[in-house]
Every structure is written in C-alpha cells, then in structure tokens.
Amino acid sequence: MxxxxxxxxxxxxxxxxxxxxxxxxxxxxxxxxxGVGQSIPFAELRRGCPCAxxxxxxxxxGRFDLDPELRPGEAELADIALxxxxxxxVIWGDGHDTGIYRFEQLRRLxxxxxx
Length: 115
Hints:
Blueprint: E1 3-4, E2 16-22, E3 27-32, E4 37-41, H1 42-47, H2 52-55, E5 56-57, E6 60-61, H3 63-66, E7 77-83, E8 87-92, E9 100-102, H4 103-111
Antiparallel strand pairs: 1-2, 2-3, 3-4, 5-6, 7-8, 8-9
C-alpha cells in the first residue's frame, strides 16, 4: 500500500517523497526527494534493524552478531509506518517491531544495493 510523505522545507537526499513495498521482488521501495529511487531487499532491511536486540547495546552483541542467518518470518514484511518526520517503523512476520529505521540509514542501505 503506497504512502505519501507530507511536503516540507527539507528537500535533501534523505527525505523520502514516497515509500511502498514489492512483495514479488521482496523489497522496500523508496523514492527520495532528490529524484533517486531505491529498492532494499527485505532480508537486508531485516539484518539492518537498528534496535538494541538486533544491534546490541552496552557492550553486548545483538541478534545478528550472534547468528547472521535469518529464521522463518524474520524477512517477511508485515507492515510499514511513518514515525514522525524522521523514520519508518517496520513490522516483521515474526512479530518483531521495535526498530525505527531513520531515513539516513535507509538511504545508506539502499545505496549499498545499487552497486
């Protein structure tokens, strides 16, 4: 289901104008205000989850530091939602929903897929 980002004064490369997802390609699709379109595979998006459980915190390893393999449901996108004017919340098929992906991080993840 496509979603539109409200217009604002900041038109740089980390401000999305639209996001969607492609179940067939299994990817998050983002159009940025600078005209660039990116596709981030669900598996890469899941491995990039910024939450403490996945990334680790206070010197402790995160989920993907201990075991980089995806388990069933971990790369199944259930829903996406805007969080303020700075990020997306992703809800995964396994119920995981605590990571907020800042737009800057999404731009970096997408750039890693283009080469």
